[in-house]
Amino acid sequence: MLNKAGWNLHLSDKATGQVDGLDVEAVDLTSKEEVYKLVQGASAVVHLAIARPQADEESIFPESEAYRKLMFDVNIGGTTNLFEAMRENGVKRMVFVSSITTMLGVAERDSCPTDGPARPSNIYACTKLFGENMAWVYHLKCSMQCYCLRIGQPFPIGHEKENDWIRSNIKSPTTSVFALFPDISRAVEAALLEDTIPYAVVNVVSASTESEIDMESGKRIGFFPQEDWRQFASLPEPID
To answer: Which residues have CB under 8 Å from 76's CB, separation 6+?
Structure first.
């Protein structure tokens, strides 16, 4: 089904539903058979992997054993299944949604250059690095075009309790890595359209970031952020 931008989208998640009027197919990424069928006929795949637990899943929190198992099953096992299914079906473009947390595990915040050594800040970041490394292997061995987007803190997110937490911590380091959804969309579209660079790792944060984040990698694939998080959701100006 065509969306407003003209893409013929096939959406999948762990449960059925709708997003902006588009149907979502239920697919279990840990099932090789389901993933193989999912990618048949695709020209590109945008893979988010697991982002975070749902707010209503009281038994699953980022530091819990259940959440760690979910990360490993989806971010490692499911991502492996997806790359293999793409290879077997001849799908040659992967946009892998990684995380800026792959670079935030440093004693003092630096510019987070995408060509420097990875410094993951938590276990979730380690699983995202696994996906980035898989992207490199399939690019190297299978000539797959792969674009790893290191997304900052998405905002606003779907749960008001977490939005409130972000607002209340406006002076925290996360304010320098906000990524508003229109900018995330711009980054994904740039990766889908790129035809000169076959592999890239890109930092994705919004334009208003008082930034220590290196944005040159995004410019190379045509990503130019435009959003200002300070004008969004009546957030106050950050305090020095």
So the answer is: 127, 130
Q: Answer whether 179's CB lies under 8 Å from 162's CB.
A: no
Q: Provide the 8-state DSSP code for 72.
A: I
d(CA 150, CA 223) in angstroms, rounded, equals 13
Backbone angles phi, psi at 155, to 5 degrees: -155, 140
**89: Cβ–Cβ under 8 A, 6 or more apart, which residues?**
36, 39, 40, 41, 42
In the chain, the domains with their CATH numbers are 29-231 (3.40.50.720)
Selected residue with higher pLDDT from 239 and 62: 62
Closest CA relative to residue 201, chosen from 121, 99, 104, 122: 99
Q: How far apart are CA 119 and CA 129, in angstroms?
A: 10
**Phi, psi (rounded to 5 degrees) for 22:** -100, 135
Q: Is pLDDT larger for residue 88 or for residue 67? A: 88
Is the per-residue pLDDT at 211 higher than 80? Answer: no
Instruction: Grade residue 6 by pLDDT with cuts at 50, 70 and 90.
Output: confident
What's the pLDDT at 168?
A: 61
Phi (first) and psi of residue 151, to 5 degrees: -75, 135
What is the pLDDT averaged over residues 219-225? 94
More confident residue, 106 or 192: 192
Task: Mention every residue, 6+ apart, whose C-beta is less than 8 A from residue 100.
Answer: 112, 150, 151, 152, 153, 177, 179, 203, 204, 205, 213
